[in-house]
Amino acid sequence: AKYVYDFTEGNRNLKDLLGGKGANLAEMTNLGLPVPPGFTITTEACRHYLSAGSVPDGLDREVAGHLAALESRMGRKLGQADDPLLVSVRSGAKFSMPGMMETVLNIGLNDESVHGLAKQAGGNDRFAWDSYRRLIQMFGKTVLGIDGDLFEDALDALKGRRPDTGLDAGELQRLVETYKGIVREQTGREFPTDPREQMRLAVMAVFDSWNAPRAILYRRQERIPADLGTAVNIMAMVFGNYGDDSGTGVAFTRDPGSGRQGIYGDYLQNAQGEDVVAGIRNTIPLEDLERIDPPSYDQLVSIMETLENHYRDLCDIEFTIERGTLWMLQTRVGKRTAAAAFRIATQLVDQGLITMDEAVTRVTGDQLAQLMFPRFDHGAEKKKIARGMNASPGAAVGKVVFSSERAVELAGRGEDVILVRRETNPDDLAGMIAARGILTSRGGKTSHAAVVARGMGKTCVCGAEELEVLTAERRFSAPGGVVVSEGDVISIDGTTGEVFLGEVPVVDSAVVEYFEGAEPDDELVKAVDRVMRHADGARRLGVRANADTPEDAARARRFGAQGIGLCRTEHMFLGERRRLVEELVLATTDEERQVALDALEPLQKADFVGIFQAMNGHPVTIRLIDPPLHEFLPDLVDLSVKAATHEATGKDRRLLAAVKRLHEQNPMLGLRGVRLGLVIPGLFAMQVRAIAQAAAEVPGARPEIMIPLVAAVQELESVREEAVQILAEEGVAALIGTMIEVPRAALTAAQIAEAAEFFSFGTNDLTQMVWGFSRDDVESAFFSRYLDLGIFGVSPFETLDREGVGRLIEIAVAEGRSARPDLHLGICGEHGGDPDSVHFCHEAGLDYVSCSPFRIPVARLEAGRAAL
Length: 868
Ligand code: PEP
Ligand code: MG
Fold this sequence. Notes:
It is a single chain. By secondary structure, the protein is of the alpha/beta class. It contains 36 helices and 31 strands. Helix 24 packs antiparallel against helix 25 (650-662). The chain starts with a strand and ends with a helix. The structure holds phosphoenolpyruvate and magnesium ion.
């Protein structure tokens, strides 16, 4: 295998192999943009290293060859004493994981080459020693695993109240000695001075950082597969820390918050890479670069235009200016907020850069779902205490906490929290995930907090500089003498950047109002409208709703549902009516049973009339009752306790006997669904009659009767026979079909299709039975361990497991259609509203997906994307 690619050899399509950063560095190199020369070690080499524990054979030789080529190109050797080449070693996985993995800059410096570097820089000793101390600090922390605070504290002690740029060459030289001492003390060894050794160790540290706890956590959150590995980019160093004629920055070609075109970014003079994101000093807006260094600014603007036209999308970039020369260090199609994604997609259409088809593929169902979150009520009274940057939109209310641990702890108890920090770093990730929102007092729109929050779709206000955050004292102060302590409630608006004291009421989003029927008026809603119309025109899958009440059915219709795919009738037996079901189950004679059924039938009929009316001529799939019995019967222990006391009535005792008789160790695999229908005479018949009579009353009603939990065609046949007869008696037409929830049903689909006009895949139960995971228990018990181990990347109850459950569905589709070519096929498990699962359903050839009313727009959009 080839494990190393020069930047001139790759291109943007090689992300799997070169990672996003490597692929895009190659792309920019090929576009003729100013990228420092270098090469990329592939993700394949990383995967080999992580599984075998050592680098693959031949890698060292390949790296040496590429390094030699780089050296001859630069006319300097790595770490050469009198005139050193220095390199950076940077991680870069297929999917961007901002700040989660490692980077080491200034590789090649040691006690000799530091003088060579100073000479190279025209006698700039300060710069050389600053670069050297940075190397030891980064290398010490990331490669040698030394606590970074030890270095930070030494730096702080030396500089006092001065900024880091205030240190002179002599002081920095002393700092290098201190740092070397820290390395000696912490590792028992000297800081490695052999440049090649430095590089080799740094490469392995980058490989290892793939499995750093924060990287694992981030991948799980972002559903990035655990087995991809990272590439490593080795690039000739360019220096932003030469002096005030140098600097480093990050920029977006459009506002990642709103989508507006322009120059958005932050710049830091006399600084190196990590300083900007880490928020060490306050950055200046990129516009100010126009004043500081007009030629570089103009060149940057023109490169940004080139990149946008080339990638036909918003790009973000990292750049460095070295004594007036601009260098591009990174670009990628940039992360953006959900609102910006919709706006940008339609803006690019209007600019003629992409088609409407492409625009639909540029937005996701998850982004649409985010836009449907509530926002703060504009009319409500609020006490504003500060304003920061609107880093990631949304409305979050919660108790203030000041540490990641505390955020996790309180959120674990079900509390809503807002994580407040001066600035965040990758160690705060767990707290950011646990919090409803994130508030920082420092850092710009490209700070760690902002980038990570946007990626997670979490509300974030950053850089609220009026706030003084006193982490150790667990409080912050705001102008006007306001002091907010841990546990106090605040509200933050990530769309405007405002921070409010106390709880501010939230209201529906404008996008929800649009789905509810309001005219699209603002720019965002218009963009959503255009995208949704196009997606609807493109999709082949129908979209139905899981709804059990006329209200839900009506909302589902407004949201675009083309029918009901699952009406769970047991939900109609809860509350008051539960008593009637109890009596039905406990009845010992036909008479008692009939009394209970007669009481239920008119209630059922009225339910169905309401739903048929709400659906106004669209199909309604009604599932006959499927209650896990334990949900309907009184608790065995409670009853036993009661029976043992003297309060128990005769009925209680009768109930206890029955509950004991019916008690199941494993109710989810017990007397449910069709089994119950076959055991309790008259129950299904009552339901079918109620459906038929309701349909007869509502003009245009289109009932479809669905039998749950079927495993064998014989079960279905006997229910079907009775249903057909009742429908004939009532003079009503209805399809009769089945759910496919038991593996045996999928495997015998050809037989089952003989007795079913439609199948609906009940993937909740099907997943439970295929994996043997109790759907009621496992998510808490061991899923997090399974996610850590990479047994799956996301819970199979959330996203359909294509290989196992999906394979059964494919078998059932093929067999079912071969027996009955016009068999109608849908899905009604929770997966029906999950983006990835919708794509699977499209590919598997289903006719529709059915999901909860609020997910319907998401399913419509994803069905459109799947078809494009
Ligand atoms: C299913 O099992 O996927 C299903 C839709 O039925 P329920 O969730 O009601 O068991
Ligand atoms: Mg089920």
